[in-house]
Design brief:
Low-confidence stretches: none
Strand content: 25-35%
Largest sheet: 7 strands, mixed
Number of helices: 10
Strand order of the largest sheet: 3-2-1-4-5-9-8
CATH architecture of the domain at 6-142 and 167-201 and 250-258: 3-Layer(aba) Sandwich
Distance between the termini: 30 Å
CATH topology of the domain at 6-142 and 167-201 and 250-258: Rossmann fold
């Protein structure tokens, strides 16, 4: 599977991926998921948006990502936002973390980039007995004029069409955005699905912040620099002349518990 180098858009990624809704953490809390005092590994952490949310709730959390550029942005945000979260370079398939040390593993907007069988094996290795795995995804929804115009512009620059990211492109059927085969894989490998739900929320953007959001998407992050720059200029010029627009989003959550 082709891997996207998000490191080349690390600064835009750091700004654009802060849009985790407050309702996510609230929804986990009412389902009995507390981060207070828990040892957590956030795999595919990117620039640390979810990692910081859990640290705010007193988790003993470490962020892990294969991209050194994204981790450098996370460390910069540690300084500017007064965090002391450790970040390490590694992959979901080979974290380099100690065995049976973590109460919880979280994965947000990244499961579709993993070799899933290897990642599950590695996550089971680092989790404590009966540990939790939270797999979370989120993104904007089609429909608004701004989104339609965005698709029209970037489709000119992306060969092969605007396919879903990573292994989602291979899936024939999805439930709340998750490929149906993922559920069978989790069950086969000893994870019990404890809860599965979605949250709807909206995010407000200016033209500048929306362009940064689009630059961080896999469709454009995978382009050569010149093509990406041209696409972003064309996008900015095509957007409605308004101070702000509101884009609906959806967040999907799977809560799994390791059985053995």
């Amino acid at each position: 599977m082709e891997q996207i180098n998000f490191g080349q858009v690390a600064k835009s990624y750091a700004k654009a991926r802060e849009d985790i809704p407050a309702s996510l953490m609230e929804s986990l809390f009412i389902r009995g998921i507390s981060f207070d005092g828990k040892k957590v590994a956030d795999i595919g952490c990117g620039t640390g948006a979810l990692t910081r949310k859990m640290s705010m709730r007193k988790a003993d959390v470490i962020g892990l990502d294969p991209s050194n550029e994204l981790l450098q942005q996370a460390l910069t945000l540690n300084v500017s936002k007064n965090y002391k979260i450790p970040y390490v370079q590694g992959t979901a398939e080979n974290t380099g973390l100690q065995e049976s040390q973590f109460d919880m593993v979280t994965v947000m907007r990244a499961w579709h980039w993993f070799d899933r069988e290897q990642a599950i094996h590695e996550i089971k290795r680092i989790l404590k007995a009966k540990g939790l795995l939270l797999v979370i995804d989120s993104g904007f929804l089609a429909g608004p004029l701004v989104v339609d115009k965005t698709f029209d512009v970037i489709s000119k620059y992306v060969t092969g069409g605007l396919k879903p990211a990573g292994t989602k492109a291979e899936s024939k059927q999805r439930i709340n955005g998750f490929p149906t085969e993922w559920f069978g894989e989790w069950q086969k490998n000893g994870f019990e699905l404890r809860d599965f739900y979605k949250l709807n929320y909206s995010v407000s953007y200016t033209t500048e912040t929306w362009v940064e959001k689009v630059e961080s998407l896999s469709w454009l992050a995978g382009l050569e620099e010149k093509a990406r720059a041209n696409a972003l200029v064309e996008l900015a010029n095509s957007l409605p002349d308004t101070d702000q627009f509101v884009i609906p989003h959806e967040c999907n959550v799977s809560i799994l518990r390791m059985l053995d």
